[in-house]
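Checked the freezer inventory, then went back to the computational side. Two predictions to log before the end of the day. The first one is the construct we discussed on Monday; recording sequence and tokens without edits.
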Amino acid sequence: MKIVSIGEVLWDVIGNREYLGGAALNFSAHASRLGHHVSFVSAVGKDERGRRVLERMKELNLSTRFVHQIDAYPTGLVTVELNAAGVPKFTLHHPAAYDAPELTEGDLAELLSPKPDWIYFGTLFQMSPQAKQLTYRLIDSHCGARLLFDVNLRKDSYTPPLVRELMARAQVVKLNDDEAAEIDKMLGRSTRSLEDFCRTYTREFSWQSICITRGEKGCVMLVNGEYVEALGYAVTAQDTVGAGDAFAAAFIHGLSLQWPPQEIADFANRVAALVASRPGGTPHWTLEEARGLR
């Protein structure tokens, strides 16, 4: 598949270590590892961290063609605090270079030829008016791509009107169970269960598919009207940074291959667990390792 992923790239500072991250970058790296052609759109500063982003992207087999270097802001940075279970709490530092991405008309034409199969976008990136405008140029291009909205709510980095607007633009949505509860709250709803949530919002927004991750408990998924639940895999978590982004990549991988929903859910759980068992958002992993989990 050809995938266009637009969003943030930054460094996750965990303790005294820095790991390349950002939901959109993590998703891109894992989708590329699954064998897809990914064009990642973002921006970095003309600084040491920006230089290292571009170097690390090349190591991950990701093109840097659409990651522009800008003078105005430094490369993105987030401080990550982990609780005892390895679950992260993020502190985002602004302004950051990814708040001011740029694409020329030539860049846009190149991104859309040949036409992509998927366009990926999230919430945080759209808090910047410039980034939101660029995202909408892509998703309103009528290129025929399926639109994946990975909700990824971060503290002080979303508003209810923005989330609703992005939900209305999407065809496929991925979120976690905490985010499902928050969406119910912000929209004044009270769905009775995760299945009720999936079916209610799918009807309202005409989604093709939705997946809700549940950490070590696995996930639930509604694909073309078929609802499934899949248990997770027990691993010793180093941290869960990037696990949800890896799940999203595996999710659309299975959707595009038209696997049965239960198979998609199990595969995505395997990939997410494997990533959670290793530090950082873009650790090395193989399909053989994912399939070998018990």
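The second is the one RB wanted added to the comparison set:
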Amino acid sequence: MLESTCHCGAVQIEVPRKPRRLTNCNCSICRRYGTLWAYYKCAGVRILAKPGSTSRYSWGHKRLSFVRCKTCGCIMYWEPVQAKAGSMMGVNARNFEPGMIEGVRVRRLDGASTWKYLD
């Protein structure tokens, strides 16, 4: 099990394993957030946060909800607005300690136009 936290510690995330890969997406929101996404099944991720300590943002087709800490502003994860059994979510790997993700391949995704990996 790996743990990550926002800067102030108000939001903690537990995931079952080291990510298999990380995605650096250049879409309009991910490039602004500066995230590296690690993907997990929603059911396998544990979010530890007091009620009211996060805020959500959805845009466009409103299929995804981006969640951040209300106190320090760190983007923590995205999840589907309408999760189904087996749904996946993205956890911001920049909130892990660097040694936890050392050696994990980072793939560059062209989310700005083609939705294809560039490597």
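For RB: The radius of gyration is 14 Å. The chain has a mean pLDDT of 96. Let me know if you want it refolded.
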